[in-house]
Amino acid sequence: MKVFLFLLYFAVSKGDLYESYQRRNEVIEDRERIVSSKYFHLNNVDNRFSRRPIVIKSNLDWMKYVKDQKFVSELSIPGTHESCNLIGGPDSVSQRLTLQEQLEIGVRAFDIRCHHISDVFMINHQDIYQGIAFSSGVRDVCIDFLNKHPSEFILIFLKEESQPFETTRSFAETLGKYIKGKENYFYLNEDVPTVKEARGKIIIFRRFKSSIRPLGNFIDFKENEIFTSFTSIIARIQNCKYVKTIHDCYDKWEKVKIVLDEARNNVNALSFYINFINGAGENVFPSVVDDYVKPLLGSYLEDSYPSSFCGIIMADFIESGYDNLISLIIQRNLD
């Protein structure tokens, strides 16, 4: 009996070791396909509310006109909140354009949420799988764009979404697997690069702690606050996303304006200003807040045009809500 139990234990352990060995050595893209087919064959999400807008490619190479010696923190940059969140109902979706389409209209800062599952990153909004994985849906899209537009660079704010599931390594270790072999496309130093240093690269900003170095700058994010993160960089951030009722939309705008004003009066070239203009609540859809805040933001940018610094603007549905919003942000850099 003891011999039988030993052999059974050995067989199970050997199987676990073999699976662990397989995970370490297989191509991560192949594992993504396995995980996607295994866990996400049926999302059971009604997506009829995601209307597809007409996409006009513009601002493809706007960074080529930015001076090399500027620091990245000195630029006004259009970005998107939950950049890959296209699948869900009206109470959850935050974008209508794919990552590729956002890049093609001038967006350069992205908020990426990854569910760490079976040692790969699947893109989620909370528990809703967005139908793409990190390699083909994010990393490779960015690299392909940078190869075609080498004057540009891309900021990625990376967050772990939901609880890890069936993993054998840390979130940071899996990120390292995605970067391995493609290091030339990433800027991972813990500092503020110049535009010249950043061109052609993906700059990682971590919303998770890591003992692995280098892996990009860590930002100590807080929810529903205006705060300053002091790490390897200084980042002033407005992330007040909770809007209880439609009557609180103006309060959201007031918080956006606080950080816009601070950015406008900034004297430290190495400080980042990151302004999330999105908001939602139990009875307030993201599009409702967006429809309220966008015109106020657009008017503010018009009134302070053309040279006033506004920092990084992270928006829902950035292609809509105010004509030429992206251009109003970009043109502040073209002095």
UniProtKB/TrEMBL annotation:
One of its GO terms (biological process) is lipid metabolic process. CDD domains: PI-PLCc_BcPLC_like. PROSITE patterns: PIPLC_X_DOMAIN. Pfam families: PI-PLC-X (PF00388). The lineage of its organism: Eukaryota, Metamonada, Parabasalia, Tritrichomonadida, Tritrichomonadidae. One of its GO terms (molecular function) is lyase activity. It comes from the Eukaryota. Keywords: Signal. Residues 68-207 form the Phosphatidylinositol-specific phospholipase C X domain. Residues 1-15 form the signal peptide. This is Phosphatidylinositol diacylglycerol-lyase. InterPro entries: PI-PLC_domain (IPR051057), PLC-like_Pdiesterase_TIM-brl (IPR017946), PLipase_C_PInositol-sp_X_dom (IPR000909).
